[in-house]
Amino acid sequence: MTPGSRKVAVVGVSLSDCGRVDGVTPYALHAQAARRALADAGLDRGAVDGFASAGLGTLAPAEVAEYLGLRPDWVDSTSVGGSTWEVMAAHAADAIAAGHANAVLLVYGSTARADIKAGRRSGNLSFGSRGPLQFEVPYGHTLIAKYAMAARRHMHTYGTTIEQLASVAVQARANAAANPEAMFRDPITVDEVLDGPLIADPFTKLHCCLRSDGGAAVLLAAEEYVRDCRTAPVWILGTGEHVSHTTMSQWEDFTVSPAAVSGRHAFARAGVRPEEVDLAEIYDAFTYMTLVTLEDLGFCAKGEGGAFVEKGRLTLSGDLPVNTDGGGLSAQHPGMRGLFLLVEAVRQLRGEADGRQVRRRDGTLPRLAVASGTGGWFCSSGTVVLGRD
User: Fold this and answer.
1) Cα separation of 147 and 78, whole Å?
2) In a 3-state reduction of DSSP, which class is residue 12?
């Protein structure tokens, strides 16, 4: 088999304990998720020769790999916020296809919620005040405010309404209701979203993701490993990545996210069109992220996201189920949540999503899914198209 010709599959996925997880370390959540992913695949730890991790350790990913007892020949510690894991999956797939690795484990774990509750850290309002970011800090831009500004621009330019944005949160909660692993499952209404405490205009509390503990792991492997795995393969069909900006003054258009580029690359490389996709897992730290990413991935035209999301299309029985586990708005959000998107997409394609399983109109299992992560305040994007045999 010549280098670069190998197909790459996701052969194992898992979550660690999630939600409210006190009395454990982030390292323990990494280990728990990793063990479960290997068990899901039916492979031994010795099969792993590549490792990717970010967000923990002084020398990430070497410190985490050592904790897990791994000595990888290929590593990646790319850190671009919430899109990290889709970008890492792209890098890992390229490495496996080229013959630089055979089985790559992506793993993440965080006790973000427990650390705040215990006073070990505070809620981060910004990412710092060094480098280019220093020029915005005096104006009081918080992380949430940057997303809110972008949402306001979309509302001003295209007439998107706050009710339409609120409907994203309502539909995410409806999906979470069928997920036993989701933190919040009680139904909510548009009025309840609008009546909540204001966080950053126009976002009230329920427009914003929750804060949880938890971890996830995904194992990618070369096609010749598939026959030794206990699960059906989910193939990496195409990937794309893009970095847009860090300072808001360098963002040319607040209504266009970097997914417009990463999505175009991913779909082109996969040889599929957005209208062929059965479900989408989209990073949703805020309701506006879901709406604008749907536009930029090509599921609707620019400016039509508001009308697209308000008709219940995002629910499990909708035209395009989105964030089928409840997403970061209702299921869990322990920080850089992009790896959770891949886990949920794979579970759906394998038909292992329990009471929230998506089916096509003819009753068959979905065949194509897209996972699109966003990092920073729309600073970066990674998009992965996945499919099953």
Assistant:
1) 23
2) strand
